[in-house]
């Protein structure tokens, strides 16, 4: 037998951007609990609105399945004394299992007899277990949380009501003086409280109170209404998925409407209009067939179709005020030159321990030119890099960016072009912020990518120099994102730059500027490890096995694209027989070569068998060819050495009693190991 189970957490309005993840978390926690308690069910359905997080478990079994448990106790020689009586150890085991010692039996395992107890356990009734939902609710975690009243509980928002129903039976528990029941609340203005007769009636009961509980159905309703307006008005309404998700989580009963604004505002840069509508008002912009903005907007009301004209006028009034402010700020910004804006940056503190924005930009310029040298950029390109580094933060002092921080970089590019800056310099101003998220878009231009790497690397190293390092989940300055961005950009651009050399120079630049709270060697090692951890994350996301990741980036960080290519290649062949045999042979070379402690020059005259000579010849050929080989060819070359290595070890005692012979053999292995270690720490790869 089975019944549906409903859990609903009723709350004050939650921040829209956290609702979807919170609902998913509740669903996953309940599914995990069901699995841990061995409770059968068909499926779970999740519901979420601004005021509730809910899960329905369909066809939940009324009790746990009966099961047979087997427990192993002490060995027979410990369980019984010399007279055949139960020892204290056996009696203790029986007592712990709740049985009489005489019911115990012995079972032979690996030639040794052990006490073995088999007992049938009757499954618990589900209704007796469901009060544990209280702990699931309390265990929820959120990016933001709050206290309320005098309660110790921190939660995303105050809990206002709770439903926990198994069939038509309420599961009793209480949180912050809110007791579970079978009553939910409808739309704040259009609905009323309503009793839920059963979990199956939940969605329909809420719909009757102007609440579309299913987030996907609510979203589909929004999209459908927008498409209807598109057809009627002959408009195009770009569907921004992030905006749609946020708007969906702002309403319980969506009604789409449209409004207009003064066509004169279309003279503002498109980004200003879109940002004003999307970021501040949660409106969808409208474009024509050519993709040009039109003086209309789409918004979603949390309510029905009554008085839509009044609602539209109210939204138009708010948007008009916003656009008026934006227009004023834009016109004021046009009166200031870039050099005047840059001069103001010396009065803005980037961080109390890292100085002003002007001081930071000076350091970043030095880093950028170092990278430009490694990339062998032309003098003309370096001049653009230099100019971009001199001005790239200037728009932070503009009025529009002050009002709309989302436009930083974007307005910098706009204003730079209006003041006849080189287009590549202007693009770099916008792109240096990229990526703005872990998986965000990367800079496309070389100068923009270079400036992005220089800025992030300088920021990262500067904070490490003054002892500000991310701990646990705390990363207030987004240093992990910066490091990941550096790795992603270098990989995307396939830049074969020597990261460690650059990092060493950056540490020196920071310390020369007085950022020397920690020793340079410590900073160098910590920043390198921090960057390597981000590279690990990239490789792990690409399904590269962890031991292979360790083998490739376990030593010093080097040329990033080459590291990624080697890890990907090794991972591709990890299950092949030839790969296992090759790795075993190479690992044996590396491990034995660690015993090499002299600087012996290999003397073929000391070879005592053909296998030594053949391996020596193969290594010499590898030396000559290695610099010109690509990654695939290098792995093929190592695979080609396997038979020679196997024959060498089969016919040669490396640790000979003759010191000269021993050192000669170790020198040969050390010579070969130097190439192997350059490729990867092969000995770390698990081929068992």
From TrEMBL:
Q: Report TM segments.
A: none
Keywords on record: Aminoacyl-tRNA synthetase, ATP-binding, Cytoplasm, Ligase, Nucleotide-binding, Protein biosynthesis
Coarse class of the protein's main subcellular location: cytoplasm
Q: Which GO terms describe its biological process?
A: arginyl-tRNA aminoacylation; glycyl-tRNA aminoacylation
Q: What one GO molecular function would you report for this record?
A: glycine-tRNA ligase activity
- Pfam families xrefs: DALR_1, tRNA_synt_2f
Q: Name one GO cellular component term.
A: cytosol
* First-level EC class: ligase
Q: What is its EC number?
A: 6.1.1.14
Q: Does the keyword Lipoprotein apply?
A: no
Q: Name all DALR anticodon binding domain ranges.
A: 583-678
Record's subcellular location:
Cytoplasm
Q: Which domain of life is it from?
A: Bacteria
Matching entries from NCBIfam families are given as:
glyS
Matching PANTHER family, A to Z? GLYCINE--TRNA LIGASE, CHLOROPLASTIC_MITOCHONDRIAL 2, GLYCYL-TRNA SYNTHETASE
The entry's family comment says: Belongs to the class-II aminoacyl-tRNA synthetase family.
Listed HAMAP family:
Gly_tRNA_synth_beta
Output this protein's name: Glycine--tRNA ligase beta subunit
Instruction: Cite the source lineage.
Output: Bacteria, Bacillati, Bacillota, Bacilli, Bacillales
């Amino acid at each position: 037998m089975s019944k549906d189970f409903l859990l609903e957490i009723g709350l004050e309005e939650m921040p829209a951007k956290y609702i979807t993840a919170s609902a998913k978390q509740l669903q996953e926690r309940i599914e995990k609990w069901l699995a841990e308690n061995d409770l059968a069910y068909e499926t779970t359905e999740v519901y979420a609105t601004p005021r509730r997080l809910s899960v329905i478990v369909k066809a939940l079994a009324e009790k746990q399945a009966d099961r047979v448990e087997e427990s192993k106790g002490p060995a027979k020689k410990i369980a019984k004394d010399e007279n055949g009586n139960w020892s204290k150890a056996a009696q203790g085991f029986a007592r712990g299992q709740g049985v009489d010692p005489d019911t115990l039996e012995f079972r032979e395992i690996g030639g040794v007899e052990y006490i073995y107890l088999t007992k049938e356990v009757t499954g618990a009734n589900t209704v007796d277990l469901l009060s544990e939902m209280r702990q699931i609710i309390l265990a929820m975690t959120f990016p933001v949380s709050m206290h309320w009243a005098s309660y110790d509980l921190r939660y995303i928002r105050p809990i206002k009501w709770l439903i926990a129903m198994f069939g038509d039976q309420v599961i009793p528990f209480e949180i912050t003086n809110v007791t579970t029941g079978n009553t939910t609340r409808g739309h704040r203005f259009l609905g009323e409280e309503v009793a839920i007769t059963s979990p199956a009636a939940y969605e329909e009961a809420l719909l009757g109170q102007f609440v579309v509980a299913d987030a996907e159905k609510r979203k589909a309703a929004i999209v459908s209404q927008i498409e209807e307006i598109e057809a009627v008005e002959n408009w195009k309404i770009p569907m921004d998925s992030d905006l749609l998700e946020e708007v969906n989580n702002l309403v319980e009963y969506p009604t789409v409407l449209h409004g207009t604004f003064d066509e004169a505002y279309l003279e503002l840069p498109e980004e200003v209009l879109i940002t004003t509508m999307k970021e501040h008002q949660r409106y969808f912009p409208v474009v024509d067939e050519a993709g040009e903005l039109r003086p209309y907007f789409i918004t979603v009301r949390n309510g029905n179709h009554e008085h839509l004209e009044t609602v539209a006028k109210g939204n138009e009034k708010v948007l008009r005020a916003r656009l008026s402010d934006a227009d004023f700020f834009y016109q004021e910004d046009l009166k200031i030159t870039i050099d005047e804006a840059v001069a103001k940056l010396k009065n803005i503190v980037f961080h109390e321990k890292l100085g002003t924005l002007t001081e930071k930009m000076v350091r970043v310029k030095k880093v950028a030119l170092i990278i430009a040298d490694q990339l062998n950029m032309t003098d003309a390109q370096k001049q653009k890099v230099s100019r971009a580094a001199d001005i790239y933060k200037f728009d932070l002092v503009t009025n529009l960016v002050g009002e709309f921080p989302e436009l930083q970089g974007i307005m910098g590019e706009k204003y730079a072009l209006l003041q006849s800056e080189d287009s590549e310099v202007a693009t770099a101003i916008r792109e240096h912020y990229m990526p703005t998220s872990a998986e965000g878009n990367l800079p496309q231009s070389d100068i923009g990518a270079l400036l992005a790497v220089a800025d992030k690397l300088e920021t990262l190293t500067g904070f490490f120099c003054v002892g500000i390092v991310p701990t646990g989940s705390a990363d207030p300055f987004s240093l992990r994102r910066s490091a990941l961005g550096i790795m992603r950009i270098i990989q995307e651009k396939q830049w074969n730059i020597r990261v460690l050399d650059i990092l060493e120079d950056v540490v020196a630049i920071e310390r020369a500027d007085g950022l020397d709270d920690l020793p340079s060697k410590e900073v160098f090692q910590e920043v390198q490890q921090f960057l390597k951890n981000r590279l690990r994350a990239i490789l792990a996301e690409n399904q590269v096995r962890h031991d292979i990741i360790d083998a490739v980036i376990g030593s010093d960080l080097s040329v990033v694209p080459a590291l990624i290519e080697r890890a990907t290649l090794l991972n591709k062949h990890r299950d092949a027989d030839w790969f296992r045999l090759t790795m075993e042979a190479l690992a044996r070379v590396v491990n034995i070569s660690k015993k090499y402690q002299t600087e012996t020059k290999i003397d073929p005259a000391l070879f005592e068998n053909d296998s030594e000579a053949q391996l020596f010849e193969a290594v010499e050929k590898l030396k000559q060819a290695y610099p010109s080989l690509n990654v695939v060819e290098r792995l093929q070359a190592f695979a080609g050495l396997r038979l020679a290595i196997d024959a060498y070890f089969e016919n040669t005692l490396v640790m000979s009693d003759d010191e000269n012979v021993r050192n000669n053999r170790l020198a040969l292995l050390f010579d070969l190991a130097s190439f192997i270690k350059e490729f990867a720490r092969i000995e770390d790869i698990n081929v068992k």
